[in-house]
Design a protein that fits this description.
With 143 residues, the protein is of the alpha+beta class. The chain has helices at residues 18-37, 121-142, and strands at residues 2-4, 40-51, 60-70, 74-84, 91-104.
Length: 143
């Protein structure tokens, strides 16, 4: 997903609002989750939201989402945000987040999500790390 940082997206310093980036991340991740599950999805949680560097007015923001882990009705989606200064061509990492989505059926109740096909070592690594993050989330929810 690609966004252009417009004046209405920026604060008094000319950099994009963190909440705007978070909204873009949520939308990008939801698209990935919806495509994977072939269902409507709702955001269940956002964790480990990290802002690495500012993004300024007129810059281009590229968001990439990946479904990392799938449980019964939920999915963890990782999103990486990179920014591009169109005047210099420089690109760099600006933010990352992990989000959990639940697939919802027409009755508004959770539905089963297809499993992931793990084709590469990178896919397997993402899956294992996503599984550990899920275990941590579930353990914290029980406290």
């Amino acid at each position: 997903m690609t966004q252009l940082v417009l004046p209405g997206d920026t604060n008094s310093l000319g950099s994009v609002f963190g909440g705007t980036v978070m909204s873009w991340i949520d939308i990008c991740a939801a698209i990935a989750a919806q495509r994977h599950s072939n269902s409507e999805v709702v955001t269940a949680s956002i964790d480990q939201m990290s802002f690495v560097a500012p993004v300024y007015k007129g810059w281009v923001v590229n968001l990439k989402a990946s479904v990392n882990f799938v449980a019964k009705t939920s999915m963890e989606v990782g999103v990486r945000v990179d920014a591009e200064n169109p005047k210099t061509g420089e690109t760099f990492h600006t933010a990352s987040a992990y989000l959990t989505f639940v697939a919802i059926g027409s009755d508004g109740k959770p539905v089963l999500v297809p499993g992931l096909t793990l084709e590469s070592e990178n896919d397997r690594r993402r899956f294992e790390k996503g599984q550990k993050r899920r275990e941590y989330r579930v353990a914290n929810r029980a406290k």
